[in-house]
Amino acid sequence: MCGIAGLVYQGVSPQSAELAVRRMISSQRHRGPDGEGFYDGNGASLGHCRLSVIDLTEAGHQPMADREGRYWITYNGEIYNYLELGTELRNLGFRFKGRSDTEVLLAAYCQWGEKCLDRLRGMFAFAIWDERTGCLFAARDRLGIKPFHYCVDEDTKFAFASELKALLEFLPQRSANLQLATEFLAWNLLDHEAADTMVTGIKRLPPGHAMTWQKGAGLRLWRYWQVSISEDLETAPERKTKLIDEFRLRFEETVALHLRSDVPVGTCLSGGLDSSAIACVVNAELHRRGVSGENLQHTFSACFDDPRLDERRYIESVATATCCKTHFVFPTGERMLEDIDRWLWHQEEPVGSSSAYAQYCVARLAREQGVKVLLDGQGADEQLAGYRKYILAYIGQLLKSRRFGLAIRETIAFFGSPEILRTSRLADGRRYLFGSVPEFDQLRHNKVQMLRPATLGIGNSLGRRLGADLTRYSLPILLRQEDRNTMAFGIESRVPFVDHIFVEWLATLPADMRLSAGWTKCILRDGLAGVLPDLVRHRKSKLGFETPETAWLKGPLADWLRDTLHAPRFLADLVDLEGVRRLLNQRDGGDPFLSRQNLLFRLAIYESWARQFLQPISK
């Protein structure tokens, strides 16, 4: 895991280009604290800051050239099947100087060109410069785990970097994309399948896309991968056992692949199904390899004293089952107040909930313990229907399919559960996800047209809802937040549930392997029977990285909220400021509605973010 940057140019001196790339790398040094490198050639300058994870020697130094010196690569990520690819390439006559996946990736491009993407299994964002043709080729992994941003200055300069902040200096002026800002404030939605970012003029290479840039030809961009979720509702009884067994085998295989590393690997453990599943399967894999004692895994968890948010009994049940070494951090509103500006500087886009801050604290804890790689459970909810909204989509699809009896049984099974109702109330502040908060409709300026969920491509069926969240909305936001949270401390985050081979298989599952008889994530629960502790496997409540946000906003963050919204400089283009003040006064008067509290939080976060990114940064 690293930071990358580059500039393809004409009409600019090589010295100026080199200095610009060095500044870009300097602004991303947190991503790669173990070293840096630069390439300066005819018409292009590349930079790289390295986090050493595989092949810690100088043989993995970047930017890296092929043996002939024609191609130069700067690369961020991990190719998990690099050993198998390396063997295939050796059989084709390639010889390698070291053991890095970077060298294998570059050789794969030399052998197969753009088609090399079809063979890569992992997370990646990279650019390869062809000295002979003056063409830059770049690609981003299928689900967008690793970031790639770029900006174009007419037809003279093309700049790219891992992080958006590295490109700000290339903008003649910094302004917000008001359309995206409005959608964020209304629904906490950002469409990551689109190329636009919150800062006008800076683009992102969408997940599963590749591109080329060449003088005279400009930009060529294309999608090389996509997935669609099955619309089937039911599984034939004779297939269920086979699918459950296959799930376990496939999950064990992808977790084992994600353990490939030359440095210690830890696990994020929230106490939920997904992170617990990873921790338990990691434990089994380490035992299979003969690892024991102090070399077993370390887990990292955020906990709170609030009993409604305390997950320690679930975490401890996993720790007892695996004998892992647990580490805990207790985020507070006071510490968030200290961190909030720096946290937003790392996040680079407004964050709709303080829950992502808990993950930031976990990453800091892991770094303090000397861990450079963390496994996490992102992506399971969006594929195995872990959120309440998916239950509603499933029941709605049953009704549309005239499966009335099953729809009634499932409604009773799901909503007759007091635990699900309790956690649904707890998450009331998130109801804006698929319908804007009414108070925002009253605040927003009519000059900005808000898109409705149907316009945003969110369908009514379970498969369409899962697909939209997997590739456009929910998961891409979480992956971006996780990348920035972990890379802020020089930590590589790996997400086994988002392995594209596993994703493609999960996409074929009928709905009843995800939701059935009052249970979410059915195939995970059934497939890991005997591996997951029953206390976790049978739980129906769901929290994840929740924080006491409402209490924080009334306590340690109260003055920050009021001060930020008292005289905002950047919200005026989006909302009626007098309306914001009325909302603040209602809140101070004891307004109980979580949705309004969260709207105020998003408004304040947006303003705080804009003060850093829409005016000169001094860090």
List the helices and strands and how they pair.
Layout: E1 2-9, H1 14-26, E2 36-41, E3 44-50, E4 64-65, E5 71-79, H2 82-91, H3 101-112, E6 122-130, E7 135-140, E8 149-153, E9 157-161, H4 178-187, E10 203-204, E11 209-214, E12 218-223, H5 237-257, E13 265-268, H6 273-288, E14 298-302, H7 312-322, E15 325-329, H8 333-347, H9 355-368, E16 373-375, H10 380-384, H11 388-400, H12 404-415, H13 418-426, H14 438-443, H15 462-471, H16 474-487, E17 492-494, H17 500-506, E18 515-516, E19 519-520, H18 522-527, H19 534-537, H20 549-554, H21 558-566, H22 577-588, H23 594-613
Parallel strand pairs: 13-14, 13-16, 14-15, 16-17
Antiparallel strand pairs: 1-3, 1-9, 2-3, 4-5, 5-6, 6-7, 7-11, 8-9, 8-10, 11-12, 18-19
Helix pairs in contact: 2-3, 4-23, 5-6, 6-7, 9-16, 11-12, 21-23
Domain Glutamine amidotransferase type-2: 2-216
Protein name: asparagine synthase (glutamine-hydrolyzing)
Active site: 2
